[in-house]
Amino acid sequence: MDYVEVVESLREIYSKEITERYEYIAERFFQEFGVWPSFFARAPGRVNIIGEHIDYSGYPVLPMALERDTVMAISVSNEDCIKLKNCQRSKFPETTLPLSPKMSEEHHWSNYFIAGYNAVIHLFPNPKGFYVMVQGDLPQAAGLSSSASMTVCSSIATLYANSSKRISYKEFLPENHPRAQDMLADYYIATDKITLADLAESVTRQERLVGIACGGMDQAISIMAEPGTASLIEFNPLHVHPVSLPEGCTFIIANSLTPSAKVLTQAFRYNKRVVECRLAIALVCKSQNITTIPKTLKELQLQCGTIEEMIGIIENTIPKDVYKTNELEEIFGCALCDIVGDIPYSDLVLNSNYDYKPRLRALHCYGEVKRVYEFRETCLRGADAERLGILMNESHESCKDLYECSSDELDRLTSLARQGGALGARLTGAGWGGCCVCLVRNEKVEGLMKVLQSFYDENPFITDDTVMFPSKPCRGACLLDTK
Length: 483
Ligand code: NG1
Ligand code: MG
What we know:
- The chain has 483 residues and is of the alpha+beta class.
- Helices cover 44% and strands 17% of the residues.
- A six-stranded mixed sheet has the order 4-3-5-2-1-14, with helices on both faces. A four-stranded antiparallel sheet has the order 11-12-8-13.
- α17 runs antiparallel to α18.
- Mean pLDDT is 89; it is low at 168-181 and 183-187.
- 2-acetamido-2-deoxy-1-O-phosphono-alpha-D-galactopyranose binds next to α4 and α8.
């Protein structure tokens, strides 16, 4: 495959800016490896519009994919290894991986590459070596899923590098098909080796090995997003339903500039939330004499009643806000690890925490589920943007007070946004820092951005457009190839 051909066809269909980015990555590839890349893979980050911290409880979420993404340039080699480099080499040092790589115990960026690689490599008995140059334009630890965009990108790059078939978008989509523009190879991925839903689930399982007992929202939206719409994502089984966003409105993403370190800080707070949800389930089971403890709040609800009824059940059966480890062990008559031991990293959580808040966490989840459904219904009816804004504000309050995953900066930024004309504003992603998302009428975008700018004026070093930008729903991951 000829790189010049790739770039020429990119020029035909992409804007100058996008083409220049790919050319830059290809040139860096050539400098480092002495050959040109034969194809590119890209996978987007996402912004979650509503439905926070409920994917791992089995409930639907409503994100959209971003234009910002991770891009990989690839060329298959004759070597028995993967040579992995990043355009930002000081931040992401290069490494060489064997064809059956294991994640390193230390936090290294290549673990995310390995997660995506290992999600698909079992499909190929004789894996091939290849060269990879990575470049991404998503801020890290900002709640925009830079991690999933990396794992997804490496999974489709690995699939394609190892597949013997080469395909061209021109061959399998009629020229005037809207998706022909994307030079998609995902039709191939879907029909030949693995379905997109199985791919998303496999990447999620692997990403958990990096240190987080995460749900599957980020990987699913990065793979399955359709251009122009947000998605309602349901789990078990995975289903993605397009959701049209209100016309005449824009979503603005604004970074609180405090990184959201979910794995390493404050007693593994993300994983702690997963544990607390399970403790809520177990407390309800105890009081209702249910002997087999379901794994998710959704499975519990399916046994006990409607979402509305669940809120009452939680309020009645989990009377206190805070429980100590020994209190819980007394109630259950066993060690906590017997209740939560199957949750990844629960041992680390249990070793460093003595207070748990199962009631508040479960109340957030059931309340948030109601908001997700209402948000979607409102969009289906042609969208009452004001109501959507209220739901987003309520979601933020619930994340702040019940789930305790906001931060002072996020609270300040979201209230500034509301003062500045946003219909609604809320943290997005795991929280504890990172970005917020604001819904605003188009005619008020400029005014809102001016008001939000005052948050950044306090920090004279911030000039780039990664801190605040409008976002449109973009398509999911794809491969770019021309042969
Ligand atoms: P972030 O931290 O935004 O990538 C995390 C989880 C999601 C979901 C959200 C909270 C990962 C990879 N993803 O997203 O599954 O639970 O938090 O809604 O950790
Ligand atoms: Mg992430």
